[in-house]
Design goal:
With about 270 residues, the protein is α/β, with parallel strands linked by helices. It is built from 8 helices and 14 strands. It has 2 domains: about 70 residues, Alpha-Beta Plaits (2-Layer Sandwich), CATH 3.30.70; about 160 residues, Rossmann fold. Helix 7 runs parallel beside helix 8. The longest helix is centred in the middle third of the chain and has 13 residues. The radius of gyration is 18 Å and the shape is globular.
Amino acid sequence: MNRYIQISIETKEEESKDILIALLSEIGYEGFEEQKGLLHSYINESAYDEQKLTQVLPSTTISFKKNIIEETNWNEQWEKSFDPVIVDDFCTVRASFHKPAGTTRYEIIITPQMSFGTGHHATTYLMIDEMKHLDFKNKTVLDFGTGTGILSILANKLGAETIYAIDIDDWSIQNAAENIKENHCQNILLEKSGGLDMTGKFDIVLANINKNVILANMAAIQQHLQPGAVVLLSGLLLNDGAEIEEKARNSGLKLVKQKEKDSWILLRLSPDY
């Protein structure tokens, strides 16, 4: 039986939720539900480690509540709470049970289940919003930490020639495959992987993951870039910016642009030749 652990933490400020989500994501938590003054986070029962949880929680967190969630129809749960996300006139992210919006250039159908990446979170929104400024036509793309596959699907719709989408999580790979099929994408190569040990170089790299993974793979990202390539990084809090920029600079990358939404940031990098 595929059971999940729900950890419920009281939060006084909205910004503290963003910090908690970032910290919990780094130790394997896959889904989050925000309510007023409360954050619910979810992790597969087999991956739950209470010692890691207590170590990562800020000292200001007095307690948390733990519940076991039996195997759940996540599609039904999302249908109750998942509203479409609209990024200007560029892109709508909706579920299959929503009616087509018809007001944006692109529409992506996502059944998120427990995977990260619906457009609701500020980092995914930032990535989509910046992708509209890039030329994807006939480009090779790496989607590092694909989650639901949302960014790969958008890259496909924007004309990318080949998209290589990787994620370390089995649930994400399964969910991304379903979403790729739902959106009729033919040129996305999906693979379970936690690192960049593949061969080949890319014109565009998309990495909406977390700070530690980005820092650990910055040099590898640089080594997989074509001349004139573009790198979009998110999954980062505002105060992560300086450390990421320094690591990028030491790895032969330069900062081109920084964007912010709800205390989260996106960094656009390019090779520093």
